[in-house]
Structures are given as C-alpha cells and as structure tokens.
Amino acid sequence: MIMKTNKIAVITGASSGIGKAFAIHFAETGYDLIITGRRIEKLTTIARQLREQFGASVQIILAELSEEKEAQKLIDIIKSHDNVFVLVNNAGFGSGIEFCDNELSKHLQMLHTHVVASVELVYAVLPQMIRRKDGVIINVSSLGAYLPAPGSSIYSATKLFLKSFSESLYMEVHKYGIRVQCLCPGFTRTEFHEHRESHQPTNKNKLLWMDTETVLEESVKALRKDKTICIPGMINKLLVGMSVIMPRKLYYWLMQKSGNTTDLGKMELTAQIA
Ligand SMILES: NC(=O)c1ccc[n+]([C@@H]2O[C@H](COP(=O)([O-])OP(=O)(O)OC[C@H]3O[C@@H](n4cnc5c(N)ncnc54)[C@H](OP(=O)(O)O)[C@@H]3O)[C@@H](O)[C@H]2O)c1
C-alpha cells in the first residue's frame, strides 16, 4: 500500500538508466512525477508501469534539453505546479571524442544539457522550496568531475561545474531545510555507453561497474545523512582519493597512456594500476 504524499518529483532523463531508477524510487515512496526525455515510447511504458504499480500520477514532458525553447517548456510546466518537492537533474550524455575532433555544436549541446538546463531548472524550483522550507535537489554529476581525461574535456568540465554549483547551493539553501546532493557515479550499467559517439569501454570489470539500483541506494542513503557529495562505491571513492594525492604529471601520463579509449577519466586503467 503506497502512502500518497501529494508531492511532485521532477526527474530529467527518466527514459532509461539512473533517471528511470529515480523515477521508480520516488513513485514507490508516494510521489507524483514529472518525467522527461526524448523517447516517447520508453517514457510511456515507464509512466504506465508507475501508474499501475504505485498509483502515481505521471506527467511526461518530451524535451530536448540542449534547446532553450524546449527547456523553457519544461520550466513553464514546473512553475505551474506549487508542490514540486524534488528535482533530479539527471539528463546527460557522453562523447569520448577529443575536443578538436568533435563539432563545436556537439560541445555546446552538452554544455546546454548538463549546465544551462540544470541551472535553469534549479532556479525554477527553488523559490517554492524556500517558501515551504522543504525540498530536495539532486544534480547527477560523474566521477569524471574528479578525473578529467582526453576525450572528456567538456564532459568532465560540465560535471565539475555541477559539483561546484551543488556545493555552493548547499551552503546557501541548507538553512531553509533544502537538501542538495551532487551524485557522482562511476561506470554504471545503463544506455549511456551505447549512446556515446566514441569508443565503448571494453573491460567490464565487475569491481568497477555498478547497477542503477546500487547507485540509487547509495544516493538515497546519502540524502538521509544529508551528505552533499555522493560517490557510490568504495573503488570509486578510492580512485578519487588517489587522483587527489597523485602528482598531476603522473596523473596526466597515466590518462594519456591508456589512449583515447574511455572517458570517466580512463578509470579502468587507473583502477588496474591501483
Ligand atoms: N552510466 C554511467 O556510467 C554514468 C557514469 C557517471 C555519470 N553518469 C551520468 O548519469 C546521468 C544519466 O545517465 P545514464 O547513465 O542513466 O544514461 P542513459 O541510460 O543513456 O540515460 C540518459 C538519460 O538522459 C536523457 N538525455 C540525454 N541527452 C538528453 C538531451 N540532450 N535532452 C534531453 N534528455 C536527454 C535520455 O533521454 P532520451 O534518450 O529519451 O532523450 C535518458 O533518459 C547522465 O547525466 C550521465 O552523465 C552516467
């Protein structure tokens, strides 16, 4: 029996992977949902499942978040509700292509999706959260925020932006009872790696790869403890720790040595060395 909360959770990029896991979690805990993505069939199937299984009311918004007009459409819809308690800025994609080899428009699309749309959405929901003194904002960053690498110049930079943005935001709005989390997953089994334009990771090391349920579990646990940065998994935490203490020149050498194969900071090679 689901206890309805009369609260809305907005989740971008809920048509698959981590966003879908968040959608299931919030529906299961009594939230109604606004879910976004670009693939109507996937979103419709998920919405039907959440309505049938948890009695959630689910609104689907099709939006290409790299486009200002489409992001604005979502913002207007969000603003028309006064009971948005949760925002998960999750929509995102990778490329794996070196900076000069990729089209500038592709870089700009990533900047808009990861950075501009996330900032706009936070700006849209915060006033009502502050007024109510209650709310949750989760910005889905990446381990790549800590581990820049060839092939992930814009990806890592945008994810680092989300980390810094989340931390400042936390300090500003914590006094209103609003929790802000920056979730930094490592390799996660989703459609993300299939959609990348460049190489896909070949070494699907069980220690490094996590499933979406585990990432979600860790995020929820961190939220309960009011932790701002959530890095799921011991190995991922270790990699971040190593990257901080490692001399930068050694770090660059390691990353370059692994060749132009993966992003997320060439984690696989680093992990093997660790
Ligand atoms: N998987 C990993 O290893 C990993 C690691 C670290 C961080 N992350 C981060 O986790 C987040 C979720 O990714 P995922 O792993 O769950 O991948 P995924 O299964 O490919 O899901 C990505 C979601 O984002 C949406 N999306 C992508 N580009 C979009 C755009 N331009 N406009 C609107 N929606 C867009 C997709 O929707 P449609 O395709 O329907 O448009 C999809 O719902 C991303 O921000 C990613 O950077 C993933």
Q: Determine the CATH topology.
A: Rossmann fold
Q: So what's the CATH class?
A: Alpha Beta
User: Can you tell me the CATH architecture?
Assistant: 3-Layer(aba) Sandwich
Q: Going by CATH, what is the homologous superfamily?
A: NAD(P)-binding Rossmann-like Domain
Stretches where pLDDT falls below 50 for ≥5 residues? none
Task: Outline the biggest β-sheet.
Answer: 7 strands, parallel
Order of helix and strand elements from N to C terminus: EHEHEHEHEHEHHEHHH
Tally of DSSP helical segments: 10
Q: How large, in whole angstroms, is the Cα Rg?
A: 18 Å
Oligomer: single chain
> How far is the first residue's CA from the last residue's CA?
46 Å
Number of domains: 1
Strand content: 5-15%
The unique ligands bound to this protein are: NADP nicotinamide-adenine-dinucleotide phosphate
Helix content: 40-55%
Describe the structure.
The protein is α/β, with parallel strands linked by helices and 274 residues long. It has one domain: Rossmann fold, CATH 3.40.50.720. The chain is built from ten helices and seven strands. The protein has a seven-stranded parallel beta sheet, sandwiched between helices. Helix 1 runs parallel beside helix 2, helix 1 crosses helix 7 and helix 3 packs parallel to helix 4. The mean pLDDT is 93. Bound molecules: NADP nicotinamide-adenine-dinucleotide phosphate. NADP nicotinamide-adenine-dinucleotide phosphate binds next to helix 1 and helix 6.
